[in-house]
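re: ur question from earlier - yeah i can do the single chain one, its not a big deal. heres the input i used so u can compare w yours
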Amino acid sequence: MKQSIYHTEDARWQAVETRDANADEQFVFGVITTGIFCRPSCRARHPLRQNVRFYQSADAAQAAGFRPCKRCQPDKAPLHQQRVERIRKACAVLDASEQSLTLDALAQEMAISPYHFHRLFKSVTGMTPKAWQTARRNQRLRDALTHGEAVTPALYQAGFGSGSSFYRDADAALGMTAKQFRSGGKQLSLRYAMVDCHVGRCLVAQSPRGICAVLLGDDDAELEAQLAGLFPLAKRRLAQDDFSDILEKVVACIRAPDTRLDLPLDFQGTLFQQQVWEALRAIPSGETISYQALAAKVGKPNAVRAVASACGANRLAIIVPCHRVLRRDGQLSGYRWGVARKAALLQHEAKKET
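and the output i got, formated as tokens:
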């Protein structure tokens, strides 16, 4: 499809003039007065049109006697692939480190300024370096506890520091105490309530850490069954009147999708799931994204199925808007709370934007 856009020399020159990055993998151009060839998006000063020659590939340009530009490096991998590879190496450095690394230390390791590294890291992973390290540490703790490791050694091995914040930080990471997590969530206390919304009934559940579930359904029995399936060992109890403010805020967010929920959220998921969920929360109301584009957005273009699974594991309906993800052809795909409800949510958001 992209090749048809740049199949004429006029179209290619237009791409060069606008420095269209989408054309970078479609062709290169050589400048006969300098003997150099570049990508269409090269930031160097534009040559005169009559001095430009177009080639399908870097190999073709080199065969014609041109040498690659040192600025845009058209003979190397596409720039976005270079960026992804650089961040992949940064993540490997983080994984190998037993202690948290500062932004300055990471940037120095990658030979890039802290400001640029921070922006690049977030654009590729969907998370800041600090958030990524925190989520990775939390995942190591979850894995250790799941495999039966004792609580204190698991905390140390995961990278939690000693001191007064030792257990407090671990509790926040797990959404419950480490002991409760190790026993499968036993003794975890949840309170919940149900309310009407424009797509049926809605259940909102809160753990001591924050809102841990926003579920959709047709009746209260169905919703309570969903909650029991998600938290089978937790102590679940209907909330009293003091929960009404929380319900109102969640319903307001459902009614007006642009409203940011001003309540603490209790995310419980793997590092990859949290990356996907953060990317989902960045999608504006009224817009959609394909599973393929979402996978690329979190730096894992080949992990389309894993992205779909992360969407399916989302427990915070609408707050984490997984309903905004469509198939590549724009058609609706599966939704945890029903395709018809997904269509209704998208239609509601489209009306809000018009």
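The longest helix spans residues 79-96. not sure if urs matches, ping me
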